[in-house]
Every structure is written in structure tokens, then in C-alpha cells.
Amino acid sequence: MADENFDSSGNVTADELRLLIERAERLEEEKKGISDDIKDVFAEAKARGYDPKAIRKIMQIRKKKREEYQEEEAILEVYMKALGMI
Predict the structure, then answer these.
(1) Do residues 12 and 5 lie in contact, with contact meaning Cβ atoms separated by under 8 Å?
(2) Which of 28, 35, 43, 64 could form a disulfide with 69 if both were Cys (CB 3.0 to 4.6 A apart)?
């Protein structure tokens, strides 16, 4: 640990440590809330007749650059042809 994390007697700075832990705990709670919200969206999509797996796949694709996705698809097609899957 760096020296700035200790007081003059060599003890951990309790206030700073407590604040960091509390901040991390708040963020974990926020993350849980967001995760629950996302689950609700997928449940709503499923209730409306959409396929949540397909929606997740589309989200995954949308994160990529077009060229990156096209390259992955081309490689996948080559491999699937080699295995007689298409």
C-alpha cells in the first residue's frame, strides 16, 4: 500500500477507507437496481412475443463495428461450411 493510506502512527486511515467502502456499496446497489430494470425490460419483451435471446444477440452485434461483425460472420460461415452445417 502507498504511504498516504496510513496515518502518522502507521494505522490505516479509517475515514478514507470507510468512505471508499460505502461508495462501492452504493454503486453495487445501483448496479443491482439497473440489473433488475434490464430483467424487467426483457420480461416485457417476452410478454409481448419477442425473443429475449434474439434481442440480446442484436444488442451484442450493435456494440461492434460493422467491419468487425462482418469479419466474424464470414469466419463463422467458413467454419460452418467446413463442418457441413450449411
Answers:
(1) yes
(2) 64
- 34/29 Cα distance (integer angstroms): 9
Which residues neighbour 12 within 8 Å (Cβ) at sequence distance 6 or greater?
5, 6
User: What's the CA angle centered on 63, arms 27 and 81, to 5 degrees?
Assistant: 135
Q: What is the C-alpha to C-alpha distance for residues 63 and 61, in angstroms, rounded to an integer?
A: 5
pLDDT digits (tens, 9 = 90+) for 61-86: 999 999 999 999 999 999 999 999 99
43's grid cell: 420480461
Contacts of 55 (CB under 8 A, 6+ apart): 42, 45
Helix 14-47 vs helix 52-62: crossing angle, to nearest 10: 120
